[in-house]
Design brief:
By secondary structure, the chain is mostly helical. The chain has one domain (7-101). It is 48% helix and 8% strand. Strands 1-2 form a two-stranded antiparallel ribbon. The longest helix is centred in the last third of the chain and has 28 residues, at 55-82.
């Protein structure tokens, strides 16, 4: 089993630590799913913590995280395409009265 990484090991040379980057994810969170602009996310983070962040810093952190996760996503895609059986999760959720699925 792979040992867990701390923030510094998980995102080396990062100005923004892993917990903040994951707290405000772009794809499944406020930015892409709901359409909140990065500048407004920065304001929201400021309300809940004393951590100072800029919209540019947040965007760069998302890019760094994406580059780290891309090989894992590619590996999962290869495994799925080579699998003999695939099962889909049809669980959906509503957003503004419209049902969405992953």
């Amino acid at each position: 089993m792979t040992p867990l990484l701390n923030d510094t090991e998980a995102l080396p040379n990062a100005m923004i630590r892993l917990r903040i980057v994951i707290f405000i994810p772009p794809k499944a969170g406020l930015h892409d799913l709901v359409g909140v602009r990065a500048g407004n996310i920065v304001k929201t983070v400021a309300v809940f913590s004393s951590f100072k962040i800029t919209a540019g810093g947040l965007t760069q952190a998302w890019k760094n995280l994406a580059s780290l996760l891309e090989p894992l996503e590619d590996e999962m895609g290869r495994k799925v395409s080579q699998s003999a059986v695939l099962s889909a999760d049809e669980t959906g959720w509503k957003l503004n009265g419209i049902t969405y699925w992953l």
